[in-house]
Amino acid sequence: METFINQLFAGASLASILLMVALGLAIIYGAMGVINLAHGEFVMLGAYVTWALQTFLGIGLLPALPIVFLAIAAVGWGVERAVVSRLYRRPLDTILATWGIGIVLQQLVRIGIGPESRFIAGPGILSGNTGFGGVVLSNYRIFVLVFAIAIFAATWALMAKTEFGRKLRAVIQNREISECYGIRAEKVYAMTFAYGAGLAGLAGALISPLVNTTPSMGTYLVVDAFLVVVVGGVGSIFGTAVASGIVGETTAFFSMLLNDTVGRIAVLVAIILFIRFRPSGLFPQIVRR
Amino acid sequence: MKRRSFLTRLGAAGTMGAMGGLAAPAIFRGAGQAWAQGAEIPIGLLFSLTGEVAVVERTLHDAALLAIEEINAEGGINGRPLKVHIEDPASDPATYADRARRLFIRDNCVSVFGSYTSASRQAVLPVVEQRKGLYWYPTLYEGRECSRNIMYGGAVPNQQQQDFVPWLVENFGGRFYLLGNNYVYPKEENNVCKMLLDQLGGEAVHEEYVPLGHSDFSSVINRIRSTGPSLIFSTLVGDSDVAFARQFHAAGFDSAKMPVASLTRSEVEVAAIGGEAAAGHLSSAPYYMGYSSPENERFVEAYKSRYGGDQVTHFVSEAAYFQVYQFKAAIEKLDPAEITPEAIRDAAVGVTLKAPQGEILVDPNLHTHLWPKIARWKSDGQAEILVQSAERIAPEPYWAYAGETCTGEGLVRS
């Protein structure tokens, strides 16, 4: 029973990391139809900004979070203005372009900062574990879980309750008509892309005390994030949240029953079967094209 | 039938004629003369400077280049400087093979130093055997290979484990949790470990392989909690090792009671893990940056002054460094007129050398006799050596495979 609860928490923790990475991806795809293959590199940049703030300015991980968000959002904004905005009429080309941007960012970090892995200390107040009986939960992982849920709620509120969200939804529905009403679609797109990138940066900062910070760290993460987005239904942020929960818990469940290697294969097979029978994911977006 | 054999002969004669008349003097004799008489000795460096493996291979490249520069600063070998050709195989095995071909054919290198992963070495293997070249491979690896064209500078399983595993059983108990990445190296090491555990009366309570690059160890940690082993015997590499070490520490395990005993963790990984999380865990390797010997002090100081004070040396970069000196020692034994890759190989056998880790020796099977050391990591990121092996340990790449031995004549099956 204790093992089961521990494993349940492991799945939830995995899900929270997946949610953080996948949320930005889902927003960018949902709003703009851009499959952002540089998303993993935004995550990586987030981790590196955290590292730089900690190493050179002595700013701890928690106070660094807002700075990281703004910094990576700025990078995202730049990428959108410079490259992606020129390709809205050619959505397939954005895949190639963002993939290329990803390679460039990765190699720039490798050349500029160096290929070796970097150490980022976790926040001291969140070290240690909370335990009762045989159940042991890492404080930092609890924090990441809560933080991911909070970010999700904030994103939902941004989409549903604010003027920006209303404009964005209008542009998603019909770009031309929205523009007729005075909404500057390109500005909305740039802001959305920046927001998605900022979320990726936050994800990078949050996972940096748990994993190895290297220029190629984003590559693995982005694959899992894509799986989550596909299962959730591309563009649906609720779908993304539910799907990251499902993928996280399923992975943890198979890992407990079998092992991580077979568990991963089992999850991938399950996703392929799922997509076969529900090609638009859990919550398909209903948009008039 | 007759017609076919006639054609074959015609073809052969034609080829020989063409080569005899035109190509042979240009290529073959030219090459020999280049090696014998040229002012410079051409060698190649084949370490990835871009892509995923660059994290480690960059340091190997730096260490080998340092040795080359030192040799050239002292006037080269027998008065002939080393001419170094640098290729970047970009972490892709197929590119390794392609660039190795380029180094051996176009640049006419007598030796190439390269590779970190077994995958890249095995990609180069057919090229180097076909071109009769010589490839110097500095990494510890899983054994079970016995090429006559590769000089193996790193440890094979028996060198890392034959002292380590009994010591672990004696000090921590015999219930091992075997954890590695899912590829050939961890599996071969674990085969050797299980063989030793059988002899010592220990057991592998769980054996588990995670995908390369795997970075979420919550499930593994829960399983460790429920099996309660004496120690974790780890062959995780790179990203996975760092992620596991940090999460293992965060889970609140005490390294004094249940340490991680690693065959792959070096100063590079420890720097990324952080001293606090790495402290108290154990490693077995022939070299540590903190090992005190005059040769090592000189090596570390030269490395730091060349590449920066925050750089670390480790057990693979040490081998990348000393292999260049083994190459030098071999060339010095040769008459300049007879320098060929095969002559260098034969001359290298039996070469002894004061390396940073101690005095090492090249075995006839082209692997290296090394000085494995058991060490405990400290919170400053350096290792404290607990046990120095009593004698230099001979390499036995087929240790776990009865009836197969790697000798000076290649693989012998009895």
Automatic annotation (TrEMBL), chain A:
Localization annotation: Cell membrane
Membrane topology: Multi-pass membrane protein
GO molecular function, one term: transmembrane transporter activity
Domain of life: Bacteria
Entry-linked CDD domains: TM_PBP1_LivH_like (cd06582)
InterPro entries assigned to the protein according to its UniProt record, in alphabetical order: ABC_transp_permease, ABC_UrtB_bac, BCAA_transport_permease
Keyword Membrane applies: yes
TM segment ranges: 12-35, 55-79, 91-109, 140-159, 188-211, 217-241, 253-275
Entry keywords, A to Z: Amino-acid transport, Cell membrane, Membrane, Transmembrane, Transmembrane helix, Transport
GO terms classed as biological process: amino acid transport
Pfam families, A to Z: BPD_transp_2
Record's GO cellular component terms: plasma membrane
Family: Belongs to the binding-protein-dependent transport system permease family. LivHM subfamily.
Classification via NCBIfam families: urea_trans_UrtB
Protein name (record): High-affinity branched-chain amino acid transport system permease protein LivH
Species the sequence originates in: Pseudogemmobacter humi
Gene (name only): livH_9
TrEMBL record, chain B:
Signal peptide positions (record): none
MF-aspect GO terms: amide binding
GO BP field: amino acid transport
Alphabetical list of PROSITE patterns matching this protein: TAT (PS51318)
InterPro entries documented for this protein: AmiC_PBP1, Leu_Ile_Val-bd, Peripla_BP_I, TAT_signal
Name of protein: Aliphatic amidase expression-regulating protein
Species: Pseudogemmobacter humi
Gene name in the database record: amiC_2
